[in-house]
From TrEMBL:
CDD domains given in the database record: LPLAT_MGAT-like
Residues passing through the membrane, by range: 63-87
Protein name as catalogued: Phospholipid/glycerol acyltransferase domain-containing protein
Keyword Membrane: yes
Keyword terms of this UniProt record: Membrane, Transmembrane, Transmembrane helix
Organism: Culex pipiens pipiens (Northern house mosquito)
Entry-linked InterPro entries: Plipid/glycerol_acylTrfase
The keyword Transmembrane is annotated on this UniProt entry: yes
Biological classification of the source: Eukaryota, Metazoa, Ecdysozoa, Arthropoda, Hexapoda
Residues in Phospholipid/glycerol acyltransferase domain copies: 128-251
Amino acid sequence: MLLAGTTMGTVAEELITLNNEAVKNSTIFSYIGKYKTGARDDERGQYVDLDYSIWLYRLLTPLLLTFILPSLFVLLIYFSISICYVFKLHRRFILQVYNDGDFNGWDVARTILSVLWDAHGWIFHGYEVCGLENLPETGPALIIYYHGAIPIDMYYLVARIYLKRSRLIYTVGDRFLEKLPGWKLMGRIMKVSPGSIQSCSSVLKEGNLLSIAPGGVYEAQFGDNNYELLWRRRIGFAKVAIESKAPIIPMFTENLREGFRSVGFAQSLFIRLYNAVRFPVRPVYGGFPVKFRTHLGQPIPYDPTLTPEQLQEKVAYAVERLINKHQRIPGSILHGLKDRFVSRPDKRD
């Protein structure tokens, strides 16, 4: 019995020793170099349970992803820009291969970019276009659309129309884009430029498609999931339509604010900062794979009796009707994800 007790005591001591060694070497505990009360100098330290670290990691990962995903959108843009530069360097060789005097080397670049963006829209957002019959196959048309936090829907629409109709939609972009590295070439190939009333009217008079977001960067930065138009008193697009006598196509993309959103805090501070620098300053997060469905409304024909202010109100009303009919308000990211799998019936006018 004494021998048995001694043996059991020895085994217990060995288990305690092994357990202490396991604690010292385990990844479940981390030494952070703080002193323990009453411990010797060689024993001073503090061990923190890694369960807390795992909990913190799981808590912060979704938050980090919401800001990392938009960077993937930026990477896709710069990948597109790199394609443009490749064709710029080798366009002479491309022209020799095709050996066609009427061939435009940039058409190949536009086709590749359109395939890239159309595939991205289809895979990542199940992108669809409704009301495509409202967009003329020939002749001019002015597309007026709601500006999301990131106008990714216009990238998708440009790609889809170029592939299906072989027509390039000219786009009016903010002047700050020209300050981005590499953007000038991209803008020249895809016909994105700030534009003036005269230049935009000329584009339409030449029989092209042109898109304008009257809300611009202000609407992109300070709009929210209530989808209110922030056009303020901008009537430039109405003057363009009147001067060119082109029909206007109202446009809205469903769940646009659920894909990308601006942060919801310190809005007054960001507004003051934006008015001072005229540059996007409000952080954007998201990249959520919600359902995107672009709706093209009935054309608004040229009416010589309307003033620019009256035409602006008429177009704003048409865009708001599209929003009220097709968009869940306030928008919901979870419901936007659900729309990928379950079709939601439109609301009645």
